[in-house]
């Protein structure tokens, strides 16, 4: 069982204050809610997938305090797009969603997108696995499928106990969250076999997952405004805990995004309360917290490859249904924030 734990505050860094050091809006954002954001692993190219059936790419140029976003290209799906992933060489983008299609887009060469695979239900998650040169996709059809992008049929179809709700890959470790609150660890040296299953004390299914930088465990964000920290090794269970983040008094909001910083062993959370925060799980410190600044939920977020840019989307998350959606006020924005090292580096 996990224990509930508190994060110690770092007072001088707890809130952003009255002025933001650096916030930049991405130009020509999607016309509907953003479902995923992903940066190229080799350059500052940002891809967003959206409920408007589009996959869009911007080039982000940072020169000192001058930050510009330049739309580069876009492609369409037949229905809303839910996820994307980059090939490790930064040349190619993969996408999937409600049309059940796995698309490959040779973005940097200017090539046309092509369908390289299909699922039997919407595709919720995907990731490129560079160690074995394979794309993995997770679907609401209760399967994982591994794709050699040169072939139209999957290398392997892995049955899941329920719908795929979240997925994260880091080197040889992949963790998959399913709608029945199972978390399944795969050792990607043997990706066709489950390595281990976990449950957590979180009461609701996972919305987002990331694997520890040292591959010794994983973090989970759920709709209960809480993040669970779990270790793979049973001998480390005493280190497991949960902490509250997307809360405003008695109001509880979904944690929609959790990501470790690519340089420092700290993490970012963001959610439907319209805030994001930076945390040090090892020292249990809250490093930085955006205090209710966004007028709409943050649906997803990501770091660029060196952690110098934190991108997040502000838009309606549909948690209150279509009846509460006002197109006049529920506009979509993608925001770029340039964190200082002091905001994301552990405090000694």
Automatic annotation (TrEMBL):
Keyword Nucleotide-binding belongs to the record: no
SMART domains xref list: WD40
Keyword vocabulary terms for this entry: Repeat, WD repeat
WD repeats: 27-61, 74-105, 116-157, 255-289
Record-linked Pfam families: WD40 (PF00400)
PROSITE patterns, alphabetized: WD_REPEATS_2 (PS50082), WD_REPEATS_REGION (PS50294)
Record protein name field: Uncharacterized protein
